[in-house]
Amino acid sequence: MGDHRAYDEMVAGNGQLRPHWHGLLGTLSGLPDGGLAERALRARAQVAETDEILTLFGHNQPGGWTLDPVPLILPEGEWVQLSRGLAQRARLLDRILADVYGPQTLIAERLLPPYLVYGNPHFLRPCRRNGAPAAPGPHMPFYAADLMRAPDGSWRVIADRTQAPAGVGYALRNRRVLARTLPEAFRATPVKRLGAFTDLFLASLQALAPWGAPTPRVVVLTPGPYNPAYFEHVYLARELGLTLVQGADLTVRDDVVFLKTLDGLRRVDVVYRRVDGAYCDPLELRDDSALGITGLLQAQRAGNVAIVNDPGAALVETPALLPFLPGLAERLLGEELMLPAVTAWWCGQHSAREAIAPHPDDHVLVPTFASTLPANDPAALAAALKSRPEEVVALARLDPGVVPTVEGNKLQPKPYVLRMVLVWHDGDWVAMPGGVARVVDEAALYAAHGSGMQHGGVAKDVWVLTREERDVFIPAAATVGMAIQRGVAGELPSRVADDLFWFGRYAERIDAGARLFRAALTRLAGGGVGPRDAAELAMLAKALVAGGWVAGSALGGPPDGALFAQSLTHGASNGRVMRDCLDALRRLAFAIRDRLSVDMWHNLNHLMADVRRTLAVAGRDIDRVLGALDELIRAIAALSGMAADNMTRGAGWRFLEVGRRIERAHATTRTLSAVLRLPARQYEIGLRLALELCDSTITYRTRYPSAPRPAPAIDLILADPMNPRSLIFQLDQLRDHIDKLTATSGGQRLAEQTLARKLVAEIEVFDILSLEPSGTAPDLGPLFALLDRIGQDILSMSDLITRSFFSHVAVPHAVGVAPRRVLAASAE
Predict the structure, then answer these.
(1) Based on the domain organization, do 367 and 425 belong to the same domain?
(2) In a domain, 148, yes or no
(3) Beta bridge mates, 366
(4) Is 731 among the domain residues?
(5) Are 18 and 402 spatial neighbours (Cβ–Cβ below 8 Å)?
(6) Consecutive sets of 10 residues in the chain, 828 residues long: mean pLDDT of each?
C-alpha cells in the first residue's frame, strides 16, 4: 500500500498487516457493503452538525475540518518513546527560553547565533527578566510538536509549537465523534482514554497560580469568535470549567489582573492565553493590539499572575533553531537529543549553504521567520537565499509516512502529520495519550513548517493502545473547598452580559419581523385581495414601514407581495434587512458560544444556515418565502424554549430575557400603534390583526365567543398579566429581572428599577373600559398616547441598562432620558 519509499502505518514492507491493526481491520471488515463509506459520511455529518467552526456568512473557510473514521494507531511502547523524547525536547526548549530571556550565556558562548534571537520578531524584549527572580513554573507549560514518520520508520519533529499550541480540544472532539460513529471498534481495540488528561491539564494550570492561591481563578484568553481556532477555545473552557474571556474583559489595577464582572472586579491568577504573544499587552508590546490587556506584563513581573505560555515563548518555534538543538541539549541537559528533527540547515552559515548547494532538489526552502518571507513562494525564497541567506532555512526532503484514509468505500494511503501535546505537571512534561493526525498534501508538507491546526483539512483520531484493562492512572485535578453559591451574578463578564442582552433582542426582533411579513404575504399568496384583505394589508404595510422593514414608498400604492418578499433579503433604504438581523444574531451567538448548550447551538445552526439560505434563494416566490418564515418563527420559538429549559437562572439568562422583553415590548407598542389606526368603521379589522400579530387570537375566541371588541381585545394584548404576549407581561418580567439583577450584583441601580415600576404602573392605571365605543367607533387617542410614552421609555430603559450594567457609567437622570440610539442600531 503506497509508495515503497514511504512508511506505511498499516502494512509492513513484506505486505503483511502490522499486528496492532488487526483489531480495527477486523471490525471494518465486518461492516456491510458500503458500510465504510457510510461511517465516513456519518462522521463528517456529526462534525458538520456539532462543529463550532462555522463561518459567519454560510460558506466554507480555512479552519473547517472533516473527520476520517479510520484512526492512526500507535502501539503503547512507541507512544512511550515519543512521550519521553518530546518531554526532553520541551525541557530543552524551556531552558533555551530561560537563557535567552535571562543571562543569554548561549549567545556569549556562541552556541546560538545572535541573529536567531535579536532578529527574531518573536523575541519580545519587554519579557526579559533583567535580574528579576525566575517564575515558579516553566516558560512554556504547554507544548506541542508536529511529527512525521521517515521512510525507515523513525519519527522526526517537523515543527515545535510553543506560542499558543492547539490540539487538545480537537483531539477530544474527534474522539467523541468517532466513539459515536464507530463504537464497535472501541470494544474490539484497547485504546487509552483521553478524559483524564483534562483533569491533569486543569491541575497543572491551577498549580501555576502565584502565592499558592487556595482557589485560583484561571481564564482562557481568546482573540474572539473570528479566530479560526475559536472552537477549541470554547471547547476547552467548557471541558476545564474555566471562564472564556477576551482582552476587554480583563483589567490591571496595582499590578494585579482582574476580571470585570457584573459583581465587580475579580482577581485572576492564571491566564491561559490563546492570543499571540506580541498582542498580549498594548502598553509594552504591539501598541495597535486590541486583543490584549494593558499592564499584563508588569503584573507578571510583579509575580501576581501566571501566563501560559509566556508571551515570548514563540521565539523557539523558528526552524532555524533545529540544527543547533543537538549541541544545546549536550550543553544545557548533558544529554543526547532523543528525538531528532528533520535535517535542517540555517543558511545564515556558510557551511550550510555549501552543504545544500550540490543537491538543491533534495531540500525545501522555508523562511527563518514566518512573518518575513512568504512560505509558499519558492521563487522568493530562492532569491532570498542568494541575497539574504540568513532569512532562509533548508529542510531535507523526506517522503512522509502514509496512513489508511477512507475514499469511497476503500482505504487509500495518504501522507499525514501527527500533532502531540504535552503539559507541565509536577516538574516535567506529560504527553496526552493520543493527539490529532492530519492528512496533508505531500507537496505542501513543508510550506508552513508543518502547517498549523487553524488551516483545517482532514483530521484523524489517534489511538494509543494499552495492554491494561484499565487505563493508566493520571492524577486528577486537585480539589479545593468552595462555598456553595446560588443566585449570584458571579463570574459573568460585563461584555458577555451585553452580548446576551443583544442576543435576546435580535432573536425577538427577527420573530417580530417574520410575523409581520408572514401576515402580509399570507394575504397575498392567493392572488386576489378583497376589501378586508386590502385594509389589513394597508395596516401591515404601515407596521412594516414603522419597523423599518419596508421602504415608506410601499404606502403609496397597492400592496406588492414581490416588494415585501424582496424586502426580506434586500430591505428598505437605511432600514432593516432580515438577512442582516440573522447575521447579527449569528455574530452574537459566536461571541457567547460557551454560554449556549449543544442543543441551542444546533438550533441556531439551522436558523442561521438553512433558513437564511432559503430566504436568499426564494427571491420573489411568495410560497417559498412563506415556508422560510414559518421555519424562522418555529426556530425562534424553539430557541426561546430551550433557553427556558436549559439555561441556569443566573445573570446570563436574565440579561438574555431582559433583551427579549425589551424588544418584544417595543415591537408590541409599535405594531399596535400602526394596525389600530383605522377608519372608524374598520376598527374591528384592526383588532383582529392586533390579536393575530400578538398570537392571542385563540385565547380571545376561547374567552369571548364574539367579534373582537375594543375593551376585551385591548385588555388581552395590553394589560392581561397571564398572557405571555401581552405588553404588561413583558414589562412585569422586565421589572422582576431588573430587581433580581440589582439584588445579586450588589449595586444600587434605582434609575432602572424606578422606570420599570413606572412602565408597569402606567398600564395598571390605564382605563381600558373607556375605549369601549358609545357610538360608532372607540376613541383610541389615549391608547396611542400611552403606547408612544411606553415606547420611548422602553428605549430609555435599554440605554439605562447598557450604561449601568455593561458600561458602568453613572446615569444622572432616573427616568425620561432621551434614547441615544434608535432601536435598529446594531449592538456590535
Answers:
(1) no
(2) yes
(3) 393
(4) yes
(5) no
(6) 73 90 91 89 78 40 72 95 97 96 95 96 90 70 95 95 92 90 87 89 92 85 86 87 92 94 88 96 94 95 94 96 97 96 94 90 89 78 92 92 92 94 94 93 61 69 81 42 44 87 94 90 73 81 83 63 68 63 84 78 72 72 84 87 84 93 94 82 84 92 87 93 94 93 69 92 92 76 93 93 72 36 28
Cα 61 from Cα 58, distance rounded (Å): 9
Q: Which domain holds residue 354?
A: 343-397
**321/116 Cα distance (integer angstroms):** 8
Name the 3-class secondary structure at 138.
Answer: coil
Contacts of 410 (CB under 8 A, 6+ apart): 36
Place of cell 552559515: 349
**Residue pair 406/36 in contact by the 8 Å Cβ criterion:** yes
Q: Which three cell numbers stand for residue 284?
A: 509594552
- Please identify, among 464, 480, 511, the residue that sits at the C-terminal boundary of a domain: 464
Q: Are residues 77 and 99 in the same domain?
A: yes
Do 121 and 160 lie in a common domain? Answer: yes
Q: Is 224 left (phi over 0), alpha (psi -120 to 50) or beta?
A: left
Q: Are residues 723 and 612 in the same domain?
A: no
Same-domain pairing of 545 and 430 = no
Question: Residue 416: what residue type?
Answer: Y
Same domain, 44 and 182: yes
Neighbouring residues of 812: CB distance < 8 A, sequence distance ≥ 6 = none
**Domain contains 250:** no
**533 and 669 together in one domain:** no
User: For residues 391 and 372, what is the distance between their CA atoms, to the nearest angstrom?
Assistant: 8
In sequence order, what are the residues at sequence separation of 6 or more whose Cβ sits closer than 8 angstroms to the Cβ of residue 176? none
- Residue 759 in domain: yes
Please choose, from the candidates 513, 524, 529, the residue with its C-alpha nearest in 3D space to the C-alpha of residue 622.
Answer: 524
